[in-house]
Write a structure and sequence with these properties.
Rossmann fold; 3-stranded antiparallel β-sheet; 2 domains; alpha/beta; Ribosomal Protein L9, domain 1; 9-stranded mixed β-sheet
Length: 400
C-alpha cells in the first residue's frame, strides 16, 4: 500500500486540482480505459449480468451490491451511476412496473451508460432506465439544463453571474432534477466518499429529501476503522481512489441518524480490509436506513412487547424497550415498529387497546411519562370479564 505514497509530495492547494476536479478527471479516464485500482471485489448475481455489455461490466467501479435489497415495482435513484452497471441490474430487479434513474455529473461516464440504453431496453423487453446529469449533493439542480443555459449565455460579467445564479435557483425550485418524496429507494455504490467534506451533510439531506415516507436508502461505500489524518485527505490520488475521503465506520452511521433516518443497519461488511494505509484499514460496508419517523405523537393506549433476544434495546429517538414488558408507545411509533416492510416488525408484538381510540379524538402522547403500559390501560380499568377456556386450538376429541 505504501507505493501509493512513495516519492510523492502533495502539492499546495493552489497548484493542485480541487478534490472535485481530481475525481472528475480520474473517472473520466476510467470510462475510457479500465482502472482495476478503483474496483473492490464484488459478487453480483450472474443472471443479472448476462445481458450487460462487457464494456459496462469492465468499467464498473464499485465496492458493494445495493441492488440485492431492491424489489419489483420500486422507483429507484442510483447516486453516482457511472457506466450504468447497477442501474441495468436494478432495471431487471424492479421490472416493467418499476423505474430507475441514474445520476452522475461526469459526461464521459454518462455517455457510456447511455450508449447501450436502447439495446438493453430491447433485450429486457421494456425501457425503465434513464440517466440524468447532476451532483449527488444537489439533486435539485439539473446540470444539463445548466449546460444549455451557459452555452447560450456565457458569463462575461458579474451581472450575468448573478442572473445565472438566479436561473439555477429557479431550476431547483420549479424543475428539480429529482423532486422531493418521489422515489422508494436511493442506492449508491462507492460514491459518497468522493464528495467534498463540506458537502457531505447536505448530501445525506438530499437523500432524505427525495425519498418517500417509508422509503429507504441502501448505500455501499468504503469506510475506515480510524479517522483519516489530514495529510492523507489532501492527497488527490487517494481521495479520487475512494480511500482518503472514507467515512469512519461510526461516523457513517451517524450521518444517517443526523439526517433523520431510522432503522439504520449494517447489512454487509467486508471481513478483510480492501486496503491498509499507514495502519488504517479501509473496507466496504453497506448500510440500510429508513425514512418515515416524522409526525405528531398521539395517545391511543397502544403498547408493544419487545420479544428479545436482548434484555433491553433503545431506538434512535431514545425510547427504551424492555424484553417481555408492555411498553407504551404513541400511534406513530406503534405503526413504525410493526410495519411489515420496516426494520423492526420481527422483534415486536402488538398490544391493541380493548376500546379503540379514534385518531381524530386522540390526545397528544406524553413522552415524559413512564414508558411501561399497565395492562388496565389497554383493557380498561372497569374490565372484569370472566370467560371459559378458549376453543378451537385443539383437534376435535383431543386434548392439547
Amino acid at each position: 500500500m505504501t507505493s501509493l505514497l512513495d516519492g510523492r509530495q502533495d502539492p499546495s492547494i493552489a497548484d493542485s486540482p480541487s478534490l472535485e476536479e481530481a475525481v472528475l478527471n480520474r473517472y473520466r479516464a476510467a470510462a475510457s480505459a479500465v482502472e482495476p485500482g478503483l474496483c473492490c471485489p464484488i459478487r453480483y448475481d450472474t443472471s443479472a449480468l448476462q445481458f450487460l455489455p462487457q464494456e459496462i461490466i469492465d468499467k464498473d467501479y464499485g465496492c458493494g451490491d445495493p441492488s440485492r435489497y431492491v424489489t419489483a415495482g420500486e422507483r429507484v435513484v442510483d447516486l453516482g451511476s457511472g457506466g450504468g452497471k447497477i442501474c441495468y441490474i436494478l432495471a431487471q430487479k424492479v421490472g416493467k412496473e418499476g423505474h430507475v434513474i441514474g445520476v452522475d455529473f461526469n459526461d464521459t461516464m454518462l455517455a457510456l451508460a447511455r450508449k447501450y440504453q436502447h439495446q438493453l431496453a430491447q433485450q429486457f423487453g421494456y425501457a425503465n432506465v434513464e440517466f440524468r446529469k447532476g451532483k449527488i449533493q444537489d439533486l435539485r439542480l439539473d446540470l444539463e439544463a445548466v449546460d444549455t443555459y451557459l452555452s447560450r449565455y456565457p458569463i462575461q460579467s458579474s451581472g450575468m453571474l448573478s442572473q445565472f445564479e438566479d436561473y439555477c435557483e429557479q431550476l431547483r425550485c420549479e424543475r428539480p432534477l429529482i423532486p422531493a418524496t418521489s422515489v422508494d429507494v436511493v442506492v449508491s455504490n462507492c460514491v459518497l466518499n468522493l464528495v467534498n467534506p463540506e458537502d457531505k451533510a447536505n448530501l445525506f439531506g438530499e437523500i432524505f429529501r427525495v425519498l418517500k415516507n417509508g422509503g429507504r436508502a441502501l448505500i455501499a461505500d468504503i469506510v475506515s476503522d480510524e479517522p483519516v489524518p489530514s495529510h492523507l485527505v489532501q492527497n488527490r490520488e487517494l481521495w479520487s481512489g475512494c480511500l482518503s475521503g472514507a467515512f469512519q465506520e461510526k461516523q457513517f452511521l451517524e450521518m444517517f441518524a443526523t439526517a433523520g433516518f431510522h432503522g439504520i443497519e449494517i447489512v454487509d461488511r467486508q471481513d478483510k480490509p480492501w486496503q491498509v494505509i499507514e495502519g488504517i484499514e479501509f473496507r466496504s460496508m453497506t448500510v440500510r436506513a429508513f425514512k418515515g419517523k416524522e409526525g405528531p405523537c398521539w395517545e391511543r393506549n397502544q403498547a408493544v412487547i419487545y420479544t428479545g433476544p436482548f434484555a433491553e434495546v433503545r431506538d434512535d429517538d431514545g425510547h427504551s424497550y424492555l424484553r417481555g414488558e408492555r411498553m407504551a408507545v404513541c400511534d406513530k411509533t406503534y405503526r413504525l415498529l410493526l410495519e411489515q416492510k420496516g426494520p423492526y416488525s420481527s422483534h415486536f408484538l402488538p398490544i391493541e387497546p380493548r376500546t379503540v381510540i379514534p385518531l381524530d379524538t386522540a390526545q397528544p402522547f406524553d413522552c415524559s411519562r413512564s414508558h411501561r403500559r399497565d395492562p388496565q390501560e389497554t383493557k380498561g380499568i372497569d374490565y372484569s370479564e370472566t370467560t371459559d377456556a378458549a376453543t378451537g386450538c385443539c383437534p376435535p376429541g383431543k386434548c392439547c
